[in-house]
C-alpha cells in the first residue's frame, strides 16, 4: 500500500509536496493509517483532534491515544474539546450536524491562523461506495452518485482510492495501533447495514468491484462535467442575466425537449425544492410564482423571472424639504427656471407652493391614480402599468412620491401635471433620484 | 393496480390506444398479468410465445398454458419452436444471446408481416432496479444507470413503473394463473443474489424505495439528455465531418478540461474499447493509431482522423484500352487535340503510343517515383506527399496508374510528363475518373 500511496501522491496530488498539512485524526484505523503513511513519507504534517465529549472516558481515551502517538513521532498536536450536546440544543441541530459544524469551524480556524495549506481527511473508497448507496437508496440524481470528491478547495482526501481492506491490511502488517471508532453518525444504522449486508455481496459478485467502482465514478464525473457544459452553453442562449434578476426566455427554452433538466440545473443553486410546481409554471398564467427560501420564480408572459423575494411591506417614508431624508433615494433642491428640463426621467421639477411637506414616499397600491404630465384627464396606476407593459416585478418595484396622498411622481417614470411648473410658479424645486 | 395502470396508459402511453399490439408472453407472472390487464381494458392484443425447447416437457407445458389462456380470452396466439442449442452452437453464441436473437428476429418478422404497431413486453420496475445494480456491480457509466427504457422504437414496456409486489398482489387478487419461470439467463446467479439479498435491504432501509428509484431514474435520464446536448454542441464546433472521415481538431478539443468525456461520447458508437490508448493518442506522435473492429482513429499532426479501416492489400488492377474496366474508377477515350485541357485534376491526356496496355491501377508503394508534369527531374512519391502535406489517410487513399510499372498518373493529383502530349503526338487518349 505504501508504494501505491506514494505513486498516487506523485501522480494525482503532486501539489501536496512540501506543503504544510493538517490531518484530521479521530484515532480510528483510517486516520491512524493516514498519519503513519504521511509520517513515513516525511511530509510536513500536524494533527488536529476533536474531543466532542459525547462518550465520556472513551472520548478522553481517544484524545490521550492520538496525543501520545503524535508525541512518539514528534508531530505537532492540536486538540479541542467541544460541548457538542449543548451546542446542538442551542442551535436546534442534530448531534451529527452540530459535530460537523464545530469540527469544520475549528479546522478552518486552524488552517487560517496557523498557516496550513491543506486539511487532509482519511475518507476511503468504501466510504464513497457507502455514500453512493445511501444516496441511491434514498433517491438522488447524478450529483449524488459521483462519490466523495478527492478535493474541494483546501480539503484533500488522499486515501479515496484505497479500500477498507487495503487499510486494514496495512495496519496489520505495520502494527499500527488504533481505537475502535464508535461514531455517532445519525446515518450509522443505514451505513452499517450497507457496509455489512450489501457491499460484501457486491464484492462477492464481482471480485474486481472496487476497481470497477472507481472507473464508474470517473465515468459519472465525466458525464457530470458535460451536464455542466450543456447547462452553461444553453444558459447563455436562453437567459438574460442582470444584477437583480434573471429572465428565462420561455419560447426559446421550450424548444428544448428536455427543458426541465435545464430548469433544474439552473434553479438548484437557489435552493428551490418544488420542482413539479416549477415545471408547471412554464405553462401557467402570468403572475403565478414559486418560492424558495430566499428567491422566487415568477411567470410573466413569455418569461420566467428569477429574483430575490421582495418583502412587500406597504411602508410610507416621510420626505422633508430641508433635512437629510433617510432610507429614501431622493434629493430635493431649490432651483430656478434656467435649470428646468423635461427630458430626464430621473428627476422632476415641481411647483413648491403646491406641495405639502413632508411628502410621502411609498409603494403603489391598488386604486392609486394620477394625472400624467402631458395628458388630459386622470389615469389609474394599474392602467398605466398595463399600457406600459410593466411586469409584475416592475410593478412591485415602483415607488410613488405623494403630497397629501396625491401622486406627485411615479418615481423614475412619469410626473403628475397637477404639481408641475407653469407660468405662475414662483418657487421651483428639483426632486431627483440619488 | 388496474386503475393506476389505466391512468399510466392514458397519461404516458396514449399512443397505444386503438393500435394493434403484440404481447411477448412467456407464461410467467409478469406477462400473464400484462395479458390480463390489457385484455380487461379491451386493447387490441395478440400474443407471441417462444418455445426455446430448452426445458423439454416444461417448455411444452408453458406453451400449452399460454395457448389455452389465449383461447379462453379469444386472443390470437402465435407460437414458434426454436432449436436454440443448435443455433447457439452454430453461431458460437451463449444460449442467452441465441435465445434473444431468435426471439427478436421472430417478433420483428411478426410485427412486419402481420402489421402490428407495437411489441409489448412485461418488464417491471424491479427488473430495472436489478439491471441498475448489475451494471453498477460490474462497473458502468451514466448510460448503464438509466434503467430499462420505457420505449425503444416499436418495443413498449408498459409495466415499468410497477414493482414485483404490485404484480404479485394483482395476480393474487384476480386469481391470475401463471407458470413458474425457470429462466436460463446467464446472469441468473447475479440477478437472484441481487433480487433476494440486496434489494430487500434497500427496501427495508427506505420503505419508499421504489418511488425514490423511479425519481432517480428520471433525474439520471434528464442528465443523460444534457450530456447528449453537450456532446452534439461541442461536436459541431470541433469536428469536421465528411462522408468518409471525421476530423477532430485537437487544439480546439484540448481547450476543454474534460476533453476525454467528449472523445468517449463521440467514439463509443464506433465500438472502440481501448480508451486509455485513445486518451494517450491526443499527445502521441503523428501516425499512431487505435483500432476498433471496423474503425481506426489516426493521430495526424493537430488532428484525430476517424475512418473505416482500409484493407491495405496491394492489389494491381489491369486497365484495358477497349473493354469495360471492372473495379477501376477510370474511363478511357480516344480524343483529338481540340479536347485537350490541363486544368482538370480529374483527367489527364496522354500520348497513346507511349503507353503499354493493359495499364496497371494500384496503390502506391514505398520507393515509387515519377516525373511530375511541369517540373524537371524525377521525384519520389513519398517526397511529393510530404511537400503536398498529405495525411496518412490521404496517402493510403492514393492510387497510381502505371504503364510497364512506370507512373503515368498519380490519380486525381498529378500527371507524369513522360507520357504527356507534345508536338509529335499522333494519338491522344483521355483518361478520366468516373
Automatic annotation (TrEMBL), chains A, B:
Q: What is its EC number?
A: 6.3.4.19
Q: Can the keyword Iron be found in this entry's annotation?
A: no
Chief location bin: cytoplasm
Q: Mind listing the GO molecular function terms for this protein?
A: ATP binding; tRNA(Ile)-lysidine synthase activity
Cellular component, GO, one term: cytoplasm
Localization per Swiss-Prot or TrEMBL = Cytoplasm
**Reaction catalysed by this chain?**
cytidine(34) in tRNA(Ile2) + L-lysine + ATP = lysidine(34) in tRNA(Ile2) + AMP + diphosphate + H(+)
Keyword Calcium: yes or no? no
Which domain of life does this protein belong to?
Bacteria
State the UniProt keywords alphabetically: ATP-binding, Cytoplasm, Ligase, Nucleotide-binding, tRNA processing
Domain annotation Lysidine-tRNA(Ile) synthetase C-terminal: ranges: 359-431
| Database matches in Pfam families | ATP_bind_3, TilS_C
Question: Which GO annotations describe the biological process of this protein?
Answer: tRNA modification
| InterPro entries named among the record's database cross-references | Lysidine-tRNA-synth_C (IPR012796), Rossmann-like_a/b/a_fold (IPR014729), TilS/TtcA_N (IPR011063), tRNA_Ile_lys_synt (IPR012094), tRNA_Ile_lys_synt_N (IPR012795)
Residues that hold ATP according to the record: 26-31
Give the function comment from the record: Ligates lysine onto the cytidine present at position 34 of the AUA codon-specific tRNA(Ile) that contains the anticodon CAU, in an ATP-dependent manner. Cytidine is converted to lysidine, thus changing the amino acid specificity of the tRNA from methionine to isoleucine.
Q: Do you know which PANTHER family this protein is assigned to?
A: TRNA(ILE)-LYSIDINE SYNTHASE-RELATED
Family designation = Belongs to the tRNA(Ile)-lysidine synthase family.
Entry remark concerning the domains of this protein: The N-terminal region contains the highly conserved SGGXDS motif, predicted to be a P-loop motif involved in ATP binding.
Q: In its UniProt entry, what is this protein called?
A: tRNA(Ile)-lysidine synthase
